[in-house]
Amino acid sequence: MTLLLQLWFYLTPIMYTAEMIPEKYRWGLYLNPVGLVFVGMSQSVTEGLWLNLNEWTIIFSWTILIVLLSKLIFNKFSSKIVELL
After folding, report:
1. What is the pTM for the complete model shown?
2. How far apart are CA 21 and CA 30, in angstroms?
């Protein structure tokens, strides 16, 4: 899990811009749930640009997917949570 989180950190454009990623690998930003969020924040602060509708749709889709998966996992393990705490 530590390795996965560290890899995810380096694949998220926090300390670098999305333009520094070669064009043929930039599609990976769309697979990263927080990648476009950081790209949008960086562009809005440094360049005054907003994300387009497609990028907002991808962020919204990731959000809905994560919320639904979280709810499913919570419902599955909710009876065991009290026992573990």
Report:
1. 0.72
2. 13
pLDDT in tens, 27-40: 888 888 888 888 88
Q: How confident is the model at residue 85 (pLDDT cuts 50, 70, 90)?
A: low
d(CA 53, CA 45): 18
What CA–CA distance (Å, rounded) separates 73 from 67?
10
Using alpha carbons, list the distances in angstroms from residue 83 to 23, 69, 73, 74.
49, 22, 16, 14
Q: CA dist 58 to 7, 29, 69, 76, Å? A: 21, 10, 16, 27
Work out whether the CA dihedral 25, 1, 9, 67 comes out positive or negative. positive
